[in-house]
Queue: 4 jobs
Job 1
Amino acid sequence: MAPVRGCGGKNFYDTLYGSLVYHLSDFVTMSLTLEQVHRIAHLARIEIDEIEARRTLDQLNGIFGLIETMQAVDTQGIEPMAHAQELAQRLRPDCVTEDDQRAWRAAFQAIAPEAEAGLYLVPKVIE
Amino acid sequence: MKQWEVVIGIETHVQLSTRAKIFSGSSTAFGAAPNLQANAVDVALPGVLPVLNKGAVACAIRFGLAVGGEVAPRSVFARKNYFYPDLPKGYQISQYELPVVRGGSLPIQVGENEKTISLTRAHLEEDAGKSLHEGLGAAAQGRSGIDLNRAGTPLLEIVTEPDMRSAAEAVAYARALHALVRWIGICDGNMQEGSFRCDANVSVRPAGESRLGTRREIKNLNSFRFMQQAIDYEVRWQIATIEDGGCIEQATVLFDPASGETRAMRSKEDAHDYRYFPDPDLLPLVIDRQWIEQVRADLPELPAARRERLMTDGGLSAYDARVLTASLDLANYYEATVAAAGTENAKACANWVMVDLAARLNREDREIGESPISATQLGGLIARIADGTISTNMARKVFDELCSGGHGASADEIIARQGLQQISDSGALTALVDELLAANPGMVAEFRSGKEKAFNALVGQVMKATRGQANPQRVSELLRQKLG
């Protein structure tokens, strides 16, 4: 799939920051290369130009700087948290709460680029 | 020629039988018109948040307990990032480092050999939507259609250790797992509808080698027959490739049932770079002891324990016990039959269920749950054979009658209504036998001259005269007395 400008908004930054920060220990030098930024942008199917890539690189390396400071704290023997809040997931009972979704489908498909016979249409994808 | 060892591990995607999706309140029912079960969460509109379905977690706990695995007191949801149009968020919510179930095992049987397959883990995740490439209207030329009804359906992905050594073992494992998830009621097992899908990781290595060979993953095997064919083909291909001096490259392959071959899907270098990280939208899943114990108390007796009990209580052979525990419905039906017929008739019940009833169900293409004869009716019939009221032949007639008559009548009613009781009364039979001997002096003479055939003919005559109702054993006894 070709990178599409402006597509995947939420995913782009989540992917970029989320995965990078989580995998910090993978980056021994605690700084990124331009190549790595391009690779992640490609995986997120986001087209970024050189200027944007450099700006993103600077921002990310800036974040690494902050983290480097935090790395100084001794965390020996402390169990890592999976979430910033020390809470447990609340659960929903197994009930169907949105039964008739015809109106919702019409509303969602009104803002979709293309839809036909109830299906969202996308450029042909076939393996 | 070199000896090769086959190594197989299996990942199975089991669709959980919940009413609602794993992170939204949309229905999971199969077969709705496109995108009518796809709400704002399922289509991934910005700003929506997932809320975990308790029913899906309960299914995972049930499974963990059933395979003797460890149900994690704390597990974590992660994002698996990849791009595909039927995955609208751009990531699948799954579990990575801390899955909900760790370990466990499943016994399998191949021919006479038993083996235990170790499980690595089982984790909860959401299913993706479906892409349709054909059958779209003219306006959709060159397009794929996306149906997100399946997006967000809860899945339990069950992963084995590379413990299987042949396609037969892989199929035996898949069958055992399929039976188990249905037995504990977490999956409907409908393979046509995609409720149970297997991926097989296959590699080969020279016999005696301890390192694993490079594996290829056969995706989306949705029938046991295809699994057997696909693995057989893949193994032959891998061995031939290596023996021809080639080497195996790690790849994802698809099985084409038409050609019977597997072919590589993609070998993009970044295909497996999923950049997992904990999903910030979901807090850790905490399962306390109390909940686990509640689920445990609710769990049906498991197949292995049930088999043991059928062998001890009913004196069944290992084979019979295995056949009768193929599904929970079948095992329950059998036990209800025994309850009606009496424990002393357990073996007869097993035979009727496995032979006569099975043949009938097979002919009518029905499941045991749709049996035309209830277990109480069948048990009542078997009791009447055991106490000599009717012969086995007559019982087959009554059986057919019960099957076609709905669940109203009992065996006793049909026997009485049609006068099918066996005639065992000596007085009545003696008179009949006397009459027959007088009428057939030829046969009597033949028998006396040593022709055993003539004896059988005489028994046949009595049976015929009574329209099959005479107790054949009593008739034989009487004839021997008279002729002896």
Job 2
Amino acid sequence: MAVVGSGPAGFYTAYRVMSKLPQARVDMYEALPVPFGLVRHGVAPDHPEVKNCKDKFDEVASSPNFTFVGNASIGHPGHLAEHCTIPLKVLMSHYDSVVFAYGAAEDKKLHIPGEASLKGIYSAREFVGWYNGHPDCGQHEPDLSRAEEAVIIGQGNVALDVARILLEDVDVLRKTDISDRALAQLAQSRIKRVHVVGRRGPMQAAFTIKEVRELMKLSGVAFHGADNSLIPAALDTLPRATKRLMEVIRKGTSASVSETPKSWSLDNCLSPKAFIGDRRNPSLVGSTEFYVTKLEDPFNPRSSVARTDETVTLPSDIAFRSVGYKSVALPGFAEVGIQFDEKRGVITNDGLGRATQSSSDIAEPTGTHPPALPGVYCSGWVKRGPTGVIASTMSDAFITGDAVVHDWLSGAPFLSRSGNGTAEGWEAIKADVGAQADEIVTWDQWRQIDQAETAQGLTRGKPREKFTSIRDMLSSIK
Amino acid sequence: MSASRSLSRSLARLSQAGCRRAPSTSAPYRGLTALPSPLLRSAPTSRALQSLQLSLSRRAFSTTPQRRHGHVTPPKPGEELWVTFIDKEGEEHKFAVSAGDNLLDIAQANDLEMEGACGGSCACSTCHVIVEGEDYFDKMPEPEDDENDMLDLAFGLTETSRLGCQVIMTKELDGLVVRLPSMTRNMQASDFQ
């Protein structure tokens, strides 16, 4: 079995299949030289406990039946010459099954005036990648030294992560594995005020309670208070999770905004209309104009929302869009018959992780599905869209893993010609890709990178100092 | 997946038929190093295959056993506390444990299907357990905010849900019974929108 992507979806799927079919051999492909996907480059640096799932992934990788093929991408060329590119068709010809678990590498755009032309507007994905040392995000260094008022568009946990990193005491972050480049910039930050803006209200927001509570607990940071007309007066009848979340929002911070140097707010019922240039420096964003929206039923978590003609303008020396990630198709999908649902940004599948042959018949949870593509599976965000915490990705990956196991044991058709488990995997691909095969990073080589990063961190009092370029990663391999 | 498919098929069938772990009454506490000794229920002729299947499945991740199995303390004779886990299939597993051990470590030390994605640091909901009987639930110290925050995200949350990593065995909890909720949630309509 090949797994494309080495984040939680890939590892938990591999783990499930290897646990249930102990003879299964898994090769895992990762475009970067380093594994773990968003556990490394997405999870906030001040959430080290969330990254403990790496212990399980290490355990999976230590199995003799597991092979890590890092610095190797499927279809895409690499940034450096020292990279291995495997055409999708070649990959699929040497496995019984392929699981796509490569996540969501792009983000949704707002498509409003100024978004592409003005400086000072960042995608949350780039910002998160930047403070987490992602090698692709080095050029997206935000200038925090001139900005006092920040607008974050979106009300999910990524938006709250961005808000927290902007508002948190930089000395707290120094003890984390946040990249040094981000620390230097955050140390100069003049951000005093953060708006977290949503089209709908607190009852409809995607963020979860832990992240809200953390913001309420930051020292020297006050919360402006939510619009109480959007929160039910009586919380007792609400489901437990909603009730507790609303209590935290309503309670706010113990300090008031006049007492603290920094503050943040939830700005609800605003839909972005345009970014407007700064008066003195028209190439930079200076403010953001929003339509005021109206919720059909403010207390209904699924309430629809309509925009009104009224507008509001918020000062924004810096702006972040955080309205969701997006998966994209791999080069070659069409050629091998894999359907990609561009609208939802997922591989068309039966809901259990089996890629299906036709998108003409949209899968219904209880309806019949188009026939499955033999041996082709998907897992994680490329299967069900870019939402959820590691626990939900894990259970989702287990569903895909169980589908693979079920199909294998029930004699369903698989990818390789014989379907009898004689596919040769990476060993055969090596021969097909020629000299590029020498560019891959093995698990032992990742361990060397890991040790070098840990050693770098030690001298700085951090658990790790990540390499922020692929070249540096590769150079640390002996 | 390169090994013989038919072998894996027959092994899996055997596994389903006869390799469930020991039921409550006969499961001895297995300690830190002892391998599980399952009660084999099917015909003796298939035992060799069963134990092969078992040893294979145990071996798959046995290179670092101390990671999963190193957190519990064997109880001193006479000081055993008893805890029963009911797995997804409804099977009961009863263990003698020491005061101070938490349910996540106990479950993992005994190879029950319970993940602890965050390593027992109360930062995920993968070790969700449901306490059977309100009296036992009430005997436990109230969950802290961070535990409740994670439980809010758990699938199949109930009135007596807790995180296994936060439930520490004490004398008062001797005889505790907890149920493991289904690990893989049922697909929801919202997953298809």
Job 3
Amino acid sequence: MTLIHEPDLGTPAVANDHDVTLTIDGRAVTVPEGTSVLRAARGAGIDIPKLCASDNLAAYGSCRLCLVEVEGAKGTPASCTTPCADGMVVRTDTDTVHALRHGVMELYLSDHPQDCAGCARGNCEIQALAVQTGAAEVRYGRGGASHLDDTADTSNPYFTYDPKACIVCNRCVRACGEVQGTFALTVQGRGFDSRITAGGTDFLSSECVSCGACVQACPTDALTEKSVIQLGMPSRTVVTTCAYCGVGCSFKAEVQGSGDDTRVVRMVPWKDGGANEGHSCVKGRFAYGYASHRDRQLSPMARDSIDDEWQVVTWEEAITRVAEGFLALREKHGVGSIGGISSSRCTNEEVYVVQKMVRAAFGNNNIDTCARVCHSPTGYGLNHAFGTSAGTQDFASVEQADVMLVIGANPTDAHPVFASRMKKRLRAGAKAIVADPRRIDLVRSPHVEAALHLPVRPGTNVAFVNAMCHVIVTEGLWDEPFVRERCEDADAYLAFIAGPEHSPEATQDVTGIPASDLRAAARLFAAGPNSAIYYGLGVTEHSQGSTMVMGMANLAMLTGNLGREGVGVNPLRGQNNVQGSCDMGSFPHELPGYRHVSRPEVREIYESLWGVTLQAEPGLRIPNMFDSAIGGSFRGLYVQGEDIAQSDPNTSHVEAALRAMDLVVVHDLFLNETARFAHVFLPGASFLEKDGTFTNAERRINRVRPVMPSRVGKDEWQVVCEIATAMGYPMSYAEASHIMDEIAATTPTFAGVSFARLDAEGSMQWPVTQAAPHGTPTMHVGSFVRGLGQLTETVYVPTTERANRRFPLVLTTGRILSQYNVGAQTRRTPNSTWHPEDVLEIHPSDAELRGVTSGDVVELSSRVGTTRLTALVSDRMPAGVVYTTFHHPVTGANVVTTENSDWATNCPEYKVTAVQVEVVTQAARANAGAGADVPADAVAGRP
Amino acid sequence: MAGTVPTTESARATTTRELATAGRAQRGPLLPILHAVMAEHGWVSDEDIAVIADVLNLSRADVHGVVSFYHDFRRTPPPAHRVQVCRGEACQAVGAQALYAAAQARFPAGGDVEVGEVFCLGNCALGPSAVLDGTLVGRLTLERLDTAAAGWTA
């Protein structure tokens, strides 16, 4: 395959039912009314030149290259800013137009490097247009004033800005604002002095979030990936899916070479990607270097005891050791003494074979997934309320939302590409209600301001959502026809929620949300007309995580906000394949498609296909595995792509469990923290080496295509099959697509899915069935999957983890833009330039009380453990709450988190830990007291 | 990218915040606020830009772009004295170019007198014209400039 160049029609598509027909260069062209002449012409294959226009940006009309003649109109209008009209006659190919374009191009070239061979891209749009307009020679000579001596800004680790090549077309500035929504770029000065700048400073110290939108927008070599400068242009494209967050962006992996010599030159977002539509963030766009990092372990290793050194072994020996080890444990300690953990980082196909190995070869249901510790309450709660364990909408739905309730999610950091869509919609006039203890960027950042920020106290979400529903019911704002027609147990619920104990006035001391703000929020949400709920782990990772998910489902049902675009209950999934790993039967109680293991008719499907008898009782969940390991009954564990020793709560408990086991098998890219306790290490393949599918937060099944062969010689699913086979249960597939075929054959919601169908459609959102052969963007239209929506009496039960005199503060956790989860990938990339360590954010008054200033090393202790962090005094925090990220192992955030968990799913209560903070080492205070020493780029409220 | 959120502000930033807050309600508030900051501080600092951006909920780049577009919004502290020589066509026709060059030689860059250029003061009949510390002067010569400067340094 060669390098894919995606067409650019110059201006965005216009949605309009009314068409107009015009004539361009003698051809009749019909387009929706409002379409630009430029787009109409380019769509019809008439190549009007352009520099400042791009079909992801509003028309700008600055470059003067797309000039055309319009019969009856004066002059030569820019086709990008000229809307098509019925009967219009346009000529793009006249002598006048040619002469004008030639003259304009000469002016550009008079201040542009002529040395195309010295240009990294070697084929920029300027060069192409010089050829197209025939303006290779410049009448003005080369001696005049120019910008050819300007120096490049190389401060960003991933790209350079070289003003020599810049034509100040403003595409980057507009992309930063319109697409990304950061507004970090501007034009400085005027006239000849005009230069693009990141706000007058270099890119690295500016507001830039390094999403890459400007680099992609640049028609010249001015903004270029450093990798392109270093390696040269790529030669072929593989379209694949990002392996970071649950947004699931589609990317073009642009590479050089083939086979084992394949080298990724850059990752460029794919315009046809359903989730991202051509946008990206600093992780997916740039932070892929971990896949070739020297830390990557490429050979299987084994050791008899975790105190021994690792020995490199052959695949054959490693697999034999694993299989014989598990068989021996099963023989000695019983069938339930071994189990496995699948990963939300892996493909659907890999997850499926892991659960199949556990169920068919291990012979039990001791399979769990890392989704246990993030979104298991989503699956439970949404299934309970609606009948499907998934979000109700696609991402594009946000473009129809009038009100967004964002709760327990920080999209600009954790789901940045979707956050850009949200911000675009907010700039267009939608209103946001942000319920979060921390003043996140969506509360207020350039050009976006939430209508209401409700600083809900950690652990009181259910009281909050009940108060919302209480106001909506008692003030008569609920959608009675919707509730009566589509929901059940309505009367009991209405009576429950109308109780005075749920009123904002009664709950404000618990939630910390002033009653007047809460009433305003409830009224705004009820008014809609399209109100959507977006939430993240700040909802699920609580002792009442599942209750809160049901509470939000209640809120959506009460207000009739389900079953159409612009509404819904939308989980923002943490990892790339959280949705998929849950879909694939990774929970100990569910076979693929969320069907309980106790259902004989479901077991029968797999028993007949797999030729085994399946257990009808659920197996062990991850926390049960740890407890049983310490108790001595659980002895062997296979862990794929999850660093449980770092990511699971109460680290010392996890480590004790791992130490207690006889055989721990780690299947991963890196020798992670868990590998310290492992006996066999199986090297994994990075997403660039995988063939399979990921399913994102909107149930979109995206293809992951191998950019290069597995660097460890085997695909992960193949290794799993070999373990099962060595244990006496033969498992084999000729290729990954056959695994999906088995999934489709056994799982009704995946019935119409195959690699071939996905390749043809681009992507599909499950359920893909005979009734919905192209997938289902919006669920529960007309009726719920379970029939009637289940309204549930969501009683608020405070967590037992409460601040007291010894631990007076509450710790909550989250992510930052440049890093990802436990940092195994991003820490091995230059992304650490932006976030070299985790810090503890603390409110000024809490800090003052403890003598803490920014930069101090502080001790953070809870009733289960103690760790050390650098403090950052920040008025983003409410008093009484401290916050940290958990990206760096040295932070040990989970040393302090407790073993509290969701009542229904055991999802750990990461978001609430009572703690104390004490100063250990004071930062250098040379400038103490000098308020003016605050850096100018860091004035309050401007993160 | 996301930076720190300090909680203390300099006295200057506080003043700028008050000016920006007072001006934010008007339509198109940025230019009037920048004028107010110029009047108060004589120039626009990085800190002022950050504060104004915060108050108006703009990016710092947005504010920087506007500030840099207008020459009269200074990004450096003002000099003790300013000479702004008109370089419009009418004044050029009566020797403004030579006067400008001479003024630049007389008051080298970096000293406490700053020589700048403007394009037409509307005083074309009496060129060459200049503005000396805010006062319009017609029929300006280097000698008259020296006389004025003697008064400054005295």
Job 4
Amino acid sequence: MCDVATVKKIANCLGVSPGQVKLNDEQVVTRISKNKSVNGFASILETLALESTSETALNSKSSREVEAQVYQWIEFAVLYVAPGSKDKYVAKQLLADFNRLFINKSYLVGHFITLADLAVYYAIYNLVKCLTPVEKESYLNLSRWFDHLQQRPEVNQGEPLLNFTTIYLHGWATGTHI
Amino acid sequence: MSTGTLYTYPENFRAYKALIAAQYSGAKVKVADNFKFGETNKSADFLKKFPSGKVPAFETDDGKFLSESNAIAYFVANEQLRGGKCPYVQAQVQQWISFADNEIVPASCAWVFPLLGIVPQQKNNTAKQDAEVVLQLLNQKLLNATYLAGERITLADIIVFSSLLHLYEHVLEPSVRKPFGNVNRWFLTILNQPQVQAVVKDYKLCEKSLVFDPKKYAEFQAKVGGGKPQQQKQEKKKEEKKPKEKKEQEPAEELDAADEALALEPKSKDPFDALPKGTFNFDDFKRVYSNEDEAKSIPYFFEKFDPENYSIWIGEYKYNDELAKVFMSCNLITGMFQRLDKMRKAAFASVCLFGEDNNSTISGIWVWRGQDLAFTLSPDWQIDYEVYDWKKLDAKSEETKKLVTQYFSWSGTDKDGRKFNQGKIFK
């Protein structure tokens, strides 16, 4: 994650031309657009948000406080989520943490979709994709948030939808989830 | 884009639906600023436009008229709020709107309005349980869904949210709302949308549930009834048209009307009101009785007592041989007092238990307005009285004086010589 592909996806999602995105000599993701070069995932996302007029971008810069929190989550996605998702045990912990977070929140920052959601969404996408239905069962709140995002065409961008429907069936059938 | 004027009283949760929808769509909805509830909406001009006389009501700038809050909200909404292009999501929006009207609003009103003093407290009120069932349904839905219909905020969210406002403001204190975590999450999400914040200002989630306060109800009734005699008349007419059975079958509609008209109940339903008040003042006597010695309060009673309009009775329990434990017998007395709650205003009693466990009797001296047995005045009071033998006492006789003194001062013995054990005062 936090690689070239993700930057392009987020740019698409915000309705901004991604420009030229590649890894530079030091293997840092770089974006060149309108003869300006920006290094680093978080900085690139910031410039994308500035260029975009999409709902997500506008939300992300709606106040200083929101901006700071969004930045914090993007850093978290780069530094912990992406590397952590490669380790089975760390990944489990991450998912559990996010699930707990989403008990009381609909989105990561504030009460609306922001870049923070996108960054984390793409960071854990492969992780969630590999979960078995039974595993998803233990992350119902995370699943709700994830499913909500993937139903947005601009986020999903033509990928096949991950299946959460067994959860619904299970939830209705046993009626055990509160 | 629709532009127009919305007629409503302030902080009307039904009007919020349209106002929030307008925030999303950008429709220009102006709230009529000179609207006076009970006057504007009763005027001939208003009734010509909106025959029901109900608010919110909407008048477009090009002279079209709409009533019913959901319809107005639909009209001023945009495509996203109506459920987008997908007929299934549109249908879901309708589903939740009906859910709000049929399930949430009746339960919410039945629970909250008595506490606000808008309508009287109902007996065997199941509103709280009803509301909790509804919240549980919502909670289940919102475990797996961010919004109620589709993946965007729609009228479904706005209308269900508006219908829950009273509950979250007045009764769902943190411990009560804790089991509905998903609803809480969703509610806060909606509440904190900038479009919602622009309409629902200074809204605070309940920290401590309201409790029923009969005084509040009385004050509210006085306020509604006192100032506008003419309106009162109209309301009474309306009241007559609705027979009592209907009221019980359709609490929802009745309560809605209560909301709209700020309570249509007649000013007072106290059965004692039909009887002349006379010169005896129960409140004064009760104050003296509570604060002074019996040596003072009992003479005060006979001095002020008005035998023309009030009567003294002795009530003796019919089934004394069934009485076992003293505390159980006492509960029998206090239970009766509770069920007679509404009688307190124009009655006073001292009921005593004589004897000990397994050998005791209950009897009491009662005073109330009127010369006949008071319990027959109201169906609410007829639960207990038949297990007592009632005898009216001659207020002037010495015998009565002795009995009254004995019971009011909690002394002496019963007919068979059992000693006074405990007494309860109904005041």
